[in-house]
Amino acid sequence: MSISRIAVRYATPLLELAEERKVTDAVKEDMASFSTLCESSHDFLLMLKSPIIQNLQKSEILKKIFDGKVNELTATFLDIVTKKNRAKFLPEIAKAFISLYNKKMGYQEAQVTTAVALDAELKAAFEKLVTEITGKKPLLTEKVNPELVGGYTLQLGDQQIDESVRGQLRDLQLKFQKETI
């Protein structure tokens, strides 16, 4: 079974239980914080994925880190998943939870990559574009890549819109290669 399917299998009931207990926003924030910790701390990620560290030790480490800082449901969930030998999947479960939450709340995650940082006017224009394309409220993240030279790329889930100078040059190159063959 793929990691993403496992992650969704764990994230879905967590979301349902959070809704039932009316703590969805708190659990979402906990999962976002957990995801950020996984991205920022390579050592933490290695600890979760280590087959050498016992599940009870991992559970104790997570309790020490998160005790009193996360919702009770989140703490219980982390403990259960860890004791069931699934701690290595926690980073993916957190991302799956956030994705399911955003989908349920009508948000569309989007990433715009440009050669320079966006000002407020351009950011608003991209948010409007995402809303027009998807019909959902945008959650826009920005990325700067000077190699684009100009233009932008917009990632909406598995769809990508490439309006960058680099992308247009690549398209021209492919067109000329086809014509010479």
What's the gist of this structure?
The protein has 181 residues and is of the alpha+beta class. The protein is 63% helix and 14% strand.
Key phrases:
single chain, 181 residues, alpha+beta, Peroxidase, domain 1, 4-stranded mixed β-sheet, 8 helices, 63% helix, elongated
Q: Which sequence of SSEs, written as H and E, runs from N to C?
A: HHHHHHEHEEEH
| Poorly predicted ranges | none
Report strand %: 5-15%
Q: What spatial form do the alpha-carbon principal axes imply?
A: elongated
Number of strands: 4
CATH architecture grouping of the largest domain = Orthogonal Bundle
pLDDT averaged residue by residue? 90
Helix content: 55-70%
Give the strand order of the largest sheet, numbering strands 1, 2, ... along the chain. Answer: 2-1-3-4
What would the CATH topology of the largest domain be?
A: Peroxidase, domain 1
The major beta sheet can be summarized as:
4 strands, mixed
Total separate domains? 2
Spatial gap, N to C terminus: 43 Å
Family: Belongs to the ATPase delta chain family.
Membrane topology: Peripheral membrane protein
GO cellular component, one term: proton-transporting ATP synthase complex
Protein name: ATP synthase subunit delta
Note the topology:
Blueprint (H helix, E strand, L loop, with lengths): L2 H18 L3 H17 L1 H8 L5 H12 L5 H12 L6 H16 L1 E8 L5 H15 L2 E8 L7 E5 L2 E4 L2 H16 L1
Parallel strand pairs: 1-2
Antiparallel strand pairs: 1-3, 3-4
Helix pairs in contact: 1-6, 2-6, 4-5
Keywords: ATP synthesis, Cell membrane, CF(1), Hydrogen ion transport, Ion transport, Membrane, Transport
GO molecular function: proton-transporting ATP synthase activity, rotational mechanism
Protein name: ATP synthase subunit delta
